[in-house]
Write a structure and sequence with these properties.
This protein is mostly helical. The protein is about 60% helix and about 0% strand. It has helices at about 15-30, 35-40, 45-50, 60-70, 75-85. Helix 2 (about 35-40) crosses helix 3 and helix 2 (about 35-40) crosses helix 4 (about 60-70). It is globular and about 45 Å long.
Length: about 90
């Protein structure tokens, strides 16, 4: 059984990372729920679900709130913010 969380530096799509992280979390913890994640992140319970399903986008502010709940380092948090910025870009420039 996989014991460590997905390595964010192997991803170019923040949504795919979050989906894989959420799948890992659900496998590794019976207590994992959108509500418990939201309590740790200080966000609405539906926010992570909406981001995973493409109804909402990950923003720099959301990354700052999600980072402690995801249990990621400062470097990983910075990379996630860059992935979000890249993924939300409206054009190549």
């Amino acid at each position: 059984m996989e014991t460590s969380s997905p390595d964010i530096f192997r991803y170019a799509d923040y949504r795919q990372f979050l989906k894989d992280w959420w799948s890992w979390k659900k496998r590794s913890s019976r207590a994992a729920s959108f509500r418990s994640f939201a309590m740790k992140a200080g966000t609405a319970p539906s926010l992570l679900k909406d981001i995973l399903e493409g109804r909402r986008r990950l923003t720099a502010d959301t990354v700052a709130k999600f980072a402690p709940a995801l249990g990621i380092s400062d470097a990983e948090s910075s990379y996630l913010a860059l992935l979000a910025r890249f993924g939300n870009a409206r054009n190549v420039a």
